[in-house]
Every structure is written in structure tokens, then in C-alpha cells.
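User: Here's a chain of 104 residues. Predict its fold as C-alpha cells.
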Amino acid sequence: MVQRRRSRLPFGTRVRLLKHFVGGTPARTAAGLVGVNRHTATLFFHKLREIIAARIAEDAPLDGEIELDESCFGGVSAKERKAVGLAARSSSSACSSAVGRSTP
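Assistant: Prediction complete.
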């Protein structure tokens, strides 16, 4: 991992900015709440995102190029959805035609 220079921001300011980062506050809003320049908060948030991305990259189980074939991810294929839709339409039309009939 790349060695980073120590931040010149006071510890309390860094902690408050970090709390806003975790809370999802935009950098410009956090800057106003904490009392720092908006560029300082934006740079701080950007560096946090770089650190997070580097840690995720280190822990990634797959590396390099990954090729996916014609696989179905996340449930139902397009053919199955179409078949389900057709079956639903045909059963609803059968029900509506059955309602009009009288039983002897």
C-alpha cells in the first residue's frame, strides 16, 4: 500500500469529517458544519475513498480479466419471464370466458 503523508488537520477535525463521511453528508455541507474550507473537505473525502478502494482491491478474490459466458444471474431468464407472462394471460382469458357461461 502507498505510504501517505500525515494529515495537517487537527485530530478533532478529522474525526468530525470522518463522522460526516460515514453519515453520507456531502463534502461541501460537511465543510460548513465542521468549519473548514470546502476544498479541504473535498480532498479529505477523496483521500478516504482512495484508501477504501485500495483496501478493497487488496482483498479482491479475483484478479485480472474475467470472462462471463451466457449465464443467467439474478433469477429468471427472459424466456422464462415471457412464458410466465403468456401463461398468466391465457389463464386470465380462460377465467373471463368461464364467468360468462352458465352451469346446467
